[in-house]
Amino acid sequence: MSATPAGWYLDPATGRQRWWDGAAWSAYFADEHLDAPGARQALGLPAAPGAPGSAPGAPPRRQVPVAGVVFIVLGAGGLVILFGAVIMGMLLAAAGA
Question: Are residues 30 and 73 in the same domain?
Fold first, then answer.
C-alpha cells in the first residue's frame, strides 16, 4: 500500500503524466485523456472551452434548439403528405375521366 494519494504523476517508466489511483498505475495517460479528471490541470493547460472554470470570454458551447428541429421535421413531413395527397387526387381524377 502506497502513502501517495491518487492523482496525476510523472510515471518513471514512461516519462509521461499518468493517473496513480493510490495503489497502482492506471491505463490513463494525461496527454491521451485530456477529458479525464485533472488531466488538463496536470499538463498546465486551461480548462476545456465552455467547461466550468474555463477562461473568461471563452465561447459558450452551442446548443441545438430542439423546438426548431422538431418544427422543421414536422413541417417537412406535412409537406410530403400534402404533396402526396395532391398527386394522388390528380391521378385518381385522371383515371376516372
Answer: no
Coil, helix or strand at residue 81: helix
Q: Which residues of 26-63 are buried (b: 16+ CB within 10 A; e: fewer)?
A: eebbbeeeeeeeebbebeeeeeeeeeeebeeeeeeeee
Based on the fold, state whether residues 69 and 95 are members of the same structural domain.
Answer: yes
Q: Distance between CA atoms of 85 and 90, rounded to whole angstroms?
A: 9
How high is the pLDDT of residue 63?
A: 66
Find out whether 16 and 30 touch, Cβ atoms under 8 Å.
yes
What letter represents residue 53's amino acid?
A: G
For the residues 53-63, what does the mean pLDDT come to? 53
